[in-house]
Structure formats: structure tokens, C-alpha cells
Design a protein that fits this description.
By secondary structure, the protein is α/β, with parallel strands linked by helices. It contains six helices and six strands.
């Protein structure tokens, strides 16, 4: 699946790469909450964060928004584990050309994983759709 980005997204991705030196695979901008989500190439999250978080803090100051980082993985199961570290089990179901991922989390973590107004869940679904063509994510 080919991702297309608008000019603002490309500009932010280039700025982040220039500041941190970490290659960006994907970027989502949440203007409503002032957050930019970057999906970083595998094994490069440490570079993106920098020593004591210096690189990501500098990028936050220059961009003027909070930054959240996720590490990419070609394997869907690994990518889900990196998106939702609280997941205790991950099941992938394919039916009628649709891929659905079902994750289980502890009761105490469920609200945090889903987020206020299901914001986190929507973000995870969007990232999985864009990177691995997953149609739905179910949290149990």
C-alpha cells in the first residue's frame, strides 16, 4: 500500500529526520490535540529519542507540538506489540479479504489503551491500516 502525504506532513517528516537523524516511515498529525505521531524505522527509535531525550525534545520545541514515537516492524504481530505494549495476547483473523486483529489487555489497562473518546484506539487502527492494511482492531 502506497502512502501519500500532504505538504505539511512531508515538511514535518523532513524536519524531524534532519533534527534526529532517524528515518520516518509514517506520520500522523493531530492538530486538535497538538500531537504529531511518527512511526520510526526499525531499530532507530533510540536515535530518534537521543541521549536523555534531547533529540525528540528539540524537535518538539521546533515543531511546537508534542511528539509520540512508535517503532515500525514488518511483522504485524511485532508492530502491534510495539503500538500496544500492554497487550497480553494478539490474534490475527482474515475473513473475506479483511484482516481483523484482536488484542487482550488487563482490565486495569483497558481504559488507557482505548483512550479518552477512543482516541488511542482510532490512532492504532489508522496506523495499522496504513502500514499493514489491517481493517479493524478489537480490544478485549
Amino acid at each position: 500500500m502506497t502512502l501519500t502525504f500532504d505538504n505539511d506532513t512531508i515538511r514535518l517528516m523532513n524536519l524531524f529526520e534532519n533534527i534526529t537523524g532517524a528515518p520516518v516511515k509514517d506520520c500522523l498529525i493531530d492538530n486538535e490535540n497538538g500531537i504529531v505521531y511518527f512511526v520510526i524505522q526499525e531499530d532507530k527509535v533510540g536515535v530518534a529519542i537521543g541521549k536523555n531525550g534531547a533529540a525528540v525534545k528539540k524537535a518538539e520545541r521546533m515543531i511546537g507540538k508534542s511528539i509520540k514515537l512508535f517503532e515500525f516492524s514488518k511483522d504485524v504481530t511485532d508492530f502491534v506489540k510495539k503500538l500496544v505494549p500492554q497487550a497480553t495476547s494478539i490474534k490475527i483473523k482474515s475473513e473475506d479479504d479483511k484482516t481483523v486483529i484482536e488484542i487482550k489487555v488487563d482490565k486495569k489497562d483497558k481504559a488507557m489503551v482505548i483512550g479518552r473518546d477512543a482516541r488511542n484506539l482510532k490512532l492504532f487502527k489508522e496506523l495499522l491500516q496504513r502500514s499493514h492494511n489491517v481493517n479493524d482492531l478489537i480490544v478485549r
